[in-house]
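testing teh design pipeline on a random one, pls ignore if ur not involved
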């Protein structure tokens, strides 16, 4: 993978580490810098030329991961994580690259930071690049899968998707592994340089962005009152999940420390988001692959309410302008695959959000309830969007249903096909009632030994 030089700090590192003419190589067009699964002990900077990083699918086809041009780094992941390279990297034209190894580390004036600490912005940029690229590959994969569904029966989809799923799972696994490593490394650095901020970073890392808009507004109002803060400082602290008791310990310094508390909490929460997204991506790929498979690995003591909360966390960007009401009842744990449950709720919630946003619904609202009816767990997802047109209501669980009506997209299609396929494996059911201003999906899942 590769990443751009982003800022003055990174340019400073380039000037220090990549200016030695003795550490420069020239590669002709078509020359491999890395081959997949090799060990790499160098970090490269492209001085001139262009390189391409790609993987090989089981069918022999290639999947492109990046194009590196001048002033981009190459080999960031394998160099700093000391893991094997994930891609083949070849020159597309005659290229000149500067490089460093760990033995080339120097101490910058006024500090003794390690090489990985000095290059932390580069590592963070690399992980961000990877996540963005995986989202792009996921979108491309979804388009490919939709085309496959048009020509093949659902029962064979798992086999057809196996090659793509294999490549995606490998890339996602590296993203998850290195995000965990990054979290541990950042915690060590914070503990060394700002130990007073470590607990706020850890709070963001463990809890993430779990507060609803209404909870944030209530916290802002309370913090402004009890801590005598300005609107800006109260809002900054309210957006974090740092507890009121923690803030009370430093109430005399809150105005001064509010920006730092927020910044360190945000770093932790962002890494938490990346981990949850990586895990969710694994479940998404697995769900598509297993459309033609009867059952998946399940665990005991899965809490349905918690899986709904996980889905809401993943979809925070979709929910920013939507009022969400949660009405959870105490539910017994069930035997299930938590990822499959998250996939169900994510699809239903995202459909509702897209429907309301595309229709420009005034005061969009989403209501989710959970409860027990006899021996079944029942979850409802209700929105006040435009409703599902009557003539497609009976077809929404079929693939390839046209869901754009008079310019409006109703966010249905393959996602609901997957939802129904997952529920079938649990002996569950899904139904829908819809009219303008009121769409209600009802999901029931048998309690007990759900082995499908």
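output:
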């Amino acid at each position: 993978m590769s990443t751009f030089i982003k800022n003055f700090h990174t340019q400073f590192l380039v000037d220090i580490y990549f200016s030695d003419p003795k550490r420069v190589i020239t590669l002709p067009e078509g020359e491999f810098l890395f081959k997949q699964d090799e060990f790499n002990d160098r970090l490269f900077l492209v001085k001139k030329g262009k390189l391409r990083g790609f993987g090989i699918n089981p069918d022999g086809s290639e999947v492109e991961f990046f194009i590196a041009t001048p002033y981009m780094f190459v080999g960031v992941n394998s160099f700093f994580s000391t893991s094997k390279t994930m891609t083949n990297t070849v020159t597309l034209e005659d290229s000149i690259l500067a490089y460093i190894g760990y033995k080339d580390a120097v101490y910058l004036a006024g500090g003794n930071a390690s090489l990985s600490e000095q290059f932390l912005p580069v590592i963070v940029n690399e992980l961000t690049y990877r996540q963005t690229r995986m989202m792009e590959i996921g979108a491309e994969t979804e388009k490919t899968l939709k085309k496959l569904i048009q020509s093949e029966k659902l029962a064979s989809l798992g086999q057809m998707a196996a090659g793509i799923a294999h490549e995606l799972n490998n890339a996602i696994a590296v993203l998850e592994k290195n995000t965990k490593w990054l979290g541990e490394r950042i915690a060590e650095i914070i503990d060394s340089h700002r130990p007073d901020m470590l607990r706020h970073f850890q709070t963001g890392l463990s809890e993430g962005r779990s507060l609803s808009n209404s909870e944030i507004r209530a916290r802002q109002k309370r913090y402004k009152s009890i801590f005598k803060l300005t609107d800006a400082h109260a809002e900054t602290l309210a957006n974090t999940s740092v507890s009121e008791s923690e803030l009370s310990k430093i109430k005399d310094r809150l105005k001064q420390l509010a920006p730092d508390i927020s910044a360190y909490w945000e770093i932790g929460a962002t890494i938490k988001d990346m981990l949850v997204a990586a895990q969710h991506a694994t479940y998404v790929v697995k769900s598509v692959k297993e459309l033609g498979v009867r059952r998946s690995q399940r665990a005991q003591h899965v809490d349905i309410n918690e899986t709904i909360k996980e889905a809401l966390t993943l979809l925070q960007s979709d929910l920013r302008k939507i009022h969400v009401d949660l009405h959870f009842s105490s539910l017994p744990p069930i035997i299930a695959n938590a990822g499959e449950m998250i996939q169900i709720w994510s699809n239903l919630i995202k459909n509702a959000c897209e429907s309301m946003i595309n229709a420009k619904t005034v005061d969009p609202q989403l209501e989710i309830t959970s409860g027990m009816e006899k021996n079944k767990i029942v979850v409802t997802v209700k929105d006040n969007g435009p409703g599902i047109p009557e003539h497609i209501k009976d077809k929404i669980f079929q693939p390839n249903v046209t869901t754009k009506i008079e310019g409006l997209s109703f966010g249905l299609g393959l996602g609901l096909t997957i939802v129904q396929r997952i529920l079938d494996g649990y002996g569950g059911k899904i139904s829908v009632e819809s009219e303008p201003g009121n769409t209600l999906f009802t999901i029931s899942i048998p309690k007990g030994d759900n082995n499908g």
